[in-house]
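PROTEIN DESIGN WORKSHEET
SECTION A - STRUCTURE
LENGTH: 331
TOKENS:
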């Protein structure tokens, strides 16, 4: 019986540097067309529809939106439905722990990317109403990890709306007069790949850190499912790791290239931490910071300005038994 040889790309700087100069051409073209026809107000109005997670109807939208949805609603040829279903079962089985990991590991991990954090800061979406944005993220993640939503196409349309929302944010950022292209293209392919990895590989790493028993087959199924999601989100296929080894190399390369202290990253982390603390029982207000430090490690936690809290080792480990941690990011 032969064993398949797994690929092990290492994602050189040349590839990632080029990806920092690239957005999402087809989504950006659609937003540019709306701006050309309806101006800034038209993009803002379209953005409000994109942000309405309850409305997946295309009836009131321009024909070019329906055409975009139809064109991009086909599974990629490499998508494996059995692997996707295994990945969705993996999420369902570990939903509470994944919610904790996303809130206390994946999101602050993203904020460590200084230039990527600038976009979030300029848009003010996550900073101005952190709890609402976290709830929206939880609703979306729940939607794309249910088989019935793939059978009905809901998961794809929902994800394509988020993809276009990112393109609208990109358009406003480029037209804000505050963006320096030395920071790369706003919401560029490297940052998109990093975010996709934060929702897949970093989640897996967080579960391992928490002592949750998983198999490599389960982990790679979850990675595969989130790669399919990333494809619909507009991540270029050459930046979707095909296995855990590639995910490790891609994560390490992106972190090396992008992680540094920034005012924006620290402010976003503080807002996230405050939001989670406000959901915590008063006696356990230090637990979110302790959990973040447990996941991130002291060096990255210091970079993000996460306070060192007393009794950290005693507090960490309680989190998986406390439901308020997963309240925001699992539905």
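SECTION B - SEQUENCE
RESIDUE ASSIGNMENT:
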């Amino acid at each position: 019986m032969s064993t398949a040889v797994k690929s092990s790309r290492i994602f050189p700087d040349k590839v990632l540097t080029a990806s920092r100069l690239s957005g999402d051409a087809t989504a950006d073209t659609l937003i540019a067309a709306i701006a050309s026809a309806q101006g800034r107000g038209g993009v803002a109005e379209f953005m409000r529809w994109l942000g309405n997670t309850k409305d997946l109807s295309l009836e009131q939208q321009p024909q070019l939106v329906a055409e975009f949805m139809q064109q991009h609603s086909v599974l990629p040829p490499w998508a494996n439905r059995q692997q996707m279903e295994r990945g969705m079962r993996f999420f369902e089985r570990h939903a509470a722990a994944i919610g904790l990991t996303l809130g206390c590991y994946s999101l602050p991990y993203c904020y460590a990317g200084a230039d990527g954090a600038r976009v979030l800061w300029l848009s003010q979406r996550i900073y101005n109403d952190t709890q609402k944005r976290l709830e929206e993220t939880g609703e979306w993640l729940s939607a794309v990890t249910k088989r019935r939503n793939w059978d009905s196409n809901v998961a794809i349309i929902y994800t394509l709306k988020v993809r276009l929302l990112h393109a609208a944010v990109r358009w406003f950022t480029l037209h804000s007069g505050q963006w320096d292209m030395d920071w790369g293209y706003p919401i560029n392919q490297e940052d998109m790949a990093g975010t996709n990895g934060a929702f897949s590989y970093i989640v897996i790493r967080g579960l391992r850190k928490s002592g949750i028993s998983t198999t490599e087959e389960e982990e790679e199924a979850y990675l595969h499912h989130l790669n399919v999601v990333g494809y619909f989100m507009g991540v270029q296929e050459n930046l979707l790791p095909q296995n855990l080894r590639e995910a490790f190399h891609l994560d390490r390369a992106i972190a090396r290239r992008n992680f540094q202290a920034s005012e924006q990253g620290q402010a976003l982390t503080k807002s996230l931490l405050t939001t989670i603390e406000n959901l915590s029982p008063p006696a356990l207000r230090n637990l979110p910071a302790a959990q973040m430090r447990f996941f991130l490690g002291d060096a990255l936690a210091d970079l993000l300005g996460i306070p060192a809290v007393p009794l950290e080792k005693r507090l960490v480990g309680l989190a998986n038994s406390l439901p308020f941690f997963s309240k925001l990011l699992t539905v």
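SECTION C - NOTES
Residues 25-50 form the longest helix (26 residues).
The mean pLDDT is 90.
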